[in-house]
Design a protein that fits this description.
The chain is α/β, with parallel strands linked by helices and about 575 residues long. It contains 25 helices and ten strands. It folds into three domains: about 5-230, Spore Coat Polysaccharide Biosynthesis Protein SpsA, Chain A; about 330-405, no CATH class; about 440-540, no CATH class. Helix content is about 50%, strand content about 10%.
């Protein structure tokens, strides 16, 4: 195994003073798991190969209804030599929604941690004492803002944003300070893909500077087993997962998300510049960083004027046009690459685009049917030469997308109409909105996603039937606090100790903690009711979308008419 740390330090001119950084944990590993065997093997591998167990912590997200994983984590958190924490929350969605749980894990992370690492339970590092190797990379930059690239894509350079989606640095070891400046792990699909976009824009905005900052450091000290996503899935499972990720993919590369990645990259660059150029300035502590007019600005503390500007503006039109054009050749631009063989291209593009539309609409049965017919078609063509008869089976007309898609500019039309016809009300609502936006932003996690989908009126009605009567607003607060305690394994009698964690996920709950003696009995009563009556299972109270209601009605009518027209013999 080659130790790169000494050579990298010589190149960067790192001094021993940079290593004087106090931390309680060297590394916090974040992952999700629903496989007890894999996770137990992952923990055993860590225990066998880490030299200083106290330097490492593991935080894992599991589903609250996975009894086997909950029992395993309860035992491991008490018996393992490693510091193991876990979050047991409901995941409403699919593989493409896993990203929300990363922000849950960040809430439980030890504050004084140097590195963060997102892994999966199939990965193994078969190197004895690899934590001591990682320890050598502490402080290679004096501002402690960098990423260590370790994956199979570690040496890849990026020329386009979409490259960050299909070939990101999948196992970057990132300093916690980097993530803290960004605000969270990620606001959309993938901690690896989104943070690769941040790193891409970090380089992109300074691409004409021959001496630009480089904070993605390639290292070769780590060897992995089990690296990669979707490993071991069969063809049908791969198609289903691909279908689930198309819409999140385009959300990842939307103008809003790319602008956020660009903003985070410039915010990191501003912090680097501030510490590099002003650290010895007498007025250093009065300087501060401000985000205004799509520029990250280093402001003078007394005169309130900008000293340095880092613009992060990108072109909305270019992004929208590029995404529209690439949607017609999705599989080429999403990692498939161009086929340079001399073959009929139009037919291939049409077939590929139809497949893309079916995946996007999640018509998996139609895709499987098409695959079956395609196999039969080629079988008969080779054996019986009936190509003209079966040619029609190759093309299925698709026009459902336009009918199902709701116009995206409905909201804008409503705003224009409201501002024109009710100007006074609009001004009043704008003032209220400004007050709301000034409040602390809640990190988007599995927990917040679950709360957003609950029907609290229905829950409050259930509580009233059990003689627990509170106003809806206060009832919502109580239910959220109870469920937070359950998800994060907090004793209901010790909520004051976890005040910061709870208020970070539930807005406007400060008044409850300020007068906790008025509310603690009420919270305990609701906790007992939800535990005894529902075993904390609130899934039946999740809001149903219009599409869900339509399918429920359709299924009910089908069963009724089926029993009439097709009676059992």
């Amino acid at each position: 195994m080659t130790d790169d740390s000494d050579n990298i330090k010589k190149i960067l001119g790192t001094t021993e003073e940079n290593n004087n950084f106090n931390f309680k944990k060297l590394l916090s590993i974040h992952l999700q798991s629903n496989n007890p065997e894999n996770f137990l093997g992952f923990i055993n591998s860590l225990e066998n190969n880490i030299q200083d167990i106290g330097l490492i912590e593991v935080i894992v997200k599991i589903d609250d209804d996975d009894e086997e994983m909950n029992a395993l984590l309860l035992n491991l958190s008490k018996q393992s030599k490693l510091d193991i924490k876990y979050v047991s929350t409901p995941l409403l969605g699919n593989f493409a929604d896993l990203w929300r749980s990363m922000n849950d894990l960040l809430l439980l992370c030890e504050k004084d941690t140097y590195f963060l690492w997102n892994m999966n339970d199939e990965m193994r590092i078969p190197i004895k004492g690899w934590d001591q190797t990682l320890l050598k990379y502490v402080g290679i930059f004096p501002d402690h803002l960098f990423r260590l690239r370790t994956s199979c894509y570690r040496s890849r350079n990026y020329a386009d944003e979409w490259e960050c989606g299909f070939a990101p640095e999948t196992s970057a070891i990132t300093t916690k300070k980097w993530i803290d400046i960004c605000g969270d792990w990620n606001p959309t699909l993938g901690p690896d893909t989104f943070n690769q976009l941040v790193a891409y824009y970090f380089s992109y905005h300074d691409r004409f500077n021959k001496d630009k900052e480089i904070r993605d450091i390639v290292i070769n000290d780590f060897i992995f087993e089990g690296e990669g996503a979707s490993v071991g899935l069969n063809k049908n499972q791969q198609i289903k997962r691909l279908s689930e990720t198309i819409k999140p993919w385009f959300r990842l590369f939307s103008y809003k998300m790319l602008l956020e990645a660009s903003r985070r990259s410039q915010k990191i660059k501003a912090n680097i510049y501030l510490e590099k150029n002003f650290i010895n300035n007498p007025g250093y502590r009065t300087l501060y960083i401000k985000d205004k007019y799509k520029k990250i600005q280093i402001m003078h503390g007394e005169r309130k004027i900008p000293l340095v500007k880092f613009p992060y503006k990108i072109s909305r039109f270019d992004i929208m046009l590029r995404n529209f054009n690439r949607s017609f050749k999705y599989f080429i631009y999403a990692g498939g690459g161009f086929d340079f063989r001399v073959i009929p291209k139009l037919k291939t593009y049409i077939r590929s685009y139809v497949f893309y539309i079916l995946l996007k609409l999640k018509y998996i049965k139609i895709i499987n049917c098409g695959r079956y017919l395609g196999i039969k078609y080629y079988y008969f063509v080779k054996r019986k030469n009936v190509k003209k008869v079966l040619r029609a089976l190759k093309f299925i007309p698709i026009s459902i997308d336009i009918i199902l898609k709701i116009p995206e500019n409905t909201y804008e039309l409503f705003v224009v109409f409201f501002k024109k016809n009710f100007p006074d009300t609009w001004i009043f609502l704008k003032v209220k909105y400004d007050e709301l936006t000034r409040e602390r932003k809640i990190i988007d996690t599995d927990t917040t996603n679950f709360f957003n989908q609950l029907n609290f009126r229905k829950i409050n009605k259930f509580l009233k039937l059990n003689n627990i009567k509170f106003k809806l607003k206060i009832s919502i607060m109580y239910v959220k606090i109870v469920m937070m305690c359950k998800f994060y394994n907090i004793n209901i009698n010790e909520i004051m100790k976890h005040r910061q964690l709870i208020t970070s996920q539930i807005a406007n709950t400060e008044f409850i903690f300020n007068d906790i003696y008025l509310h603690e009995n009420n919270i305990e009563v609701i906790d007992k009711c939800l535990k005894d009556k529902l075993n904390y299972n609130l899934r039946p109270y999740v809001k149903k979308s219009i599409i869900d209601i339509i399918f429920i009605i359709y299924t009910t009518i089908s069963k009724f008419t089926g029993s009439i027209f097709n009676p059992k013999k």
